[in-house]
Design a protein that fits this description.
The chain is of the alpha/beta class and 279 residues long. It is built from 10 helices and 8 strands. α4 runs parallel beside α5.
Length: 279
């Protein structure tokens, strides 16, 4: 079975951040990932930073770029314009997401309110040009009523034309395998790639996890708390936890791993070495 490995970045906000990201993607490019994904911000300067980062990675990293595209806050015309730019620059991979409702938008979700609408729009506009990734939530989307509803929404995205999926990060392999089992039982067989978050800054991880609905196991929280401000011990423990998670996932048949790098090379490189993955 072919395994799929990829790395995610966010667009830097400063020149210093941009230079740091160049160093990071050069180091990670040596691992020969399937692609580098770049997160997306709708509107204004945020959108321009996303586009600029995507273009640089596509042209200079030696690896394919896979831009995120979210439908909340952008019109069909704006999205079609971006798709045209990506096609013209040789990009073949899109990560299609609903996105978060920007502040000030009120109850309006725009012309394409759901990720399944965006996937359908990409197919309608560009045919089979793009490989489309969508999101999956093994522990339930934070706005979802239950896992049944989540799975229905996931199936809608696949039926609209998605080729594969990346999950929200998680720390329980069982939650991933249960989600995949439910999806397979519903007759959907697209690859579902686990999203992996290295544990480095625990306070930031707790904040991210509370916002996105990812569960940090109680035993992990308790162990980290015992280290107090000992950053080195937290990082060593976090590396052990996430390495063990990745091993369980790959041994259990996961088709690859998607690393949320947070624009840092070393935590992901450490996991890669621990797993003995070929570059």
């Amino acid at each position: 079975m072919n395994q799929h490995f990829s790395f995610e970045f966010f667009p830097p906000k400063t020149d210093i951040g941009a230079e740091k990201l160049r160093d990071v993607y050069r180091k990670l490019a040596a691992l020969k990932p399937e692609y580098f994904s770049v997160t997306y911000g709708a509107g204004g300067s945020t959108r321009e930073r996303s586009l600029g980062t995507v273009m640089e990675i596509q042209q200079k990293s030696g690896c394919s770029a896979a831009p995120h595209l979210s439908c909340i806050g952008d019109s069909r015309a704006e999205l079609a314009e971006l798709l045209d730019i990506y096609k013209a620059n040789g990009i073949r991979h899109i990560v299609a997401l609903r996105g978060d409702l920007p502040s000030g938008m009120g109850a309006s979700r725009g012309e394409l309110p759901f990720a399944s609408d965006l996937v359908g729009f990409i197919r309608e506009t560009t045919g089979s040009h793009f490989h489309i990734e969508v999101a999956a939530y093994p522990e339930c989307h934070p706005q979802s009523m239950n896992l049944d509803a989540d799975i229905r929404h996931f199936i809608q995205k696949v039926k609209a034309g998605a080729n594969s999926a990346i999950t929200q990060y998680f720390f329980s392999a069982d939650s991933y395998f249960h989600f995949v089992e439910r999806v397979r039982a519903a007759g959907v067989d697209v690859p579902i790639i686990p999203g992996i978050m290295p544990i480095t800054n625990f306070a930031n991880l707790v904040r991210f996890s509370d916002a996105c609905g990812a569960e940090i196991p109680r035993w992990v929280r308790k162990q980290v708390a015992s280290y107090a401000d000992d950053t080195a011990s937290i990082q060593k423990f976090g590396e052990e936890v996430v390495t063990g998670l990745c091993e369980k996932l790959l041994e259990g048949g996961a088709p690859g791993l998607h690393f949320y790098t947070m624009n840092q090379a070393e935590p992901t490189l450490a996991l890669w070495r621990n797993l003995g993955l070929a570059g």
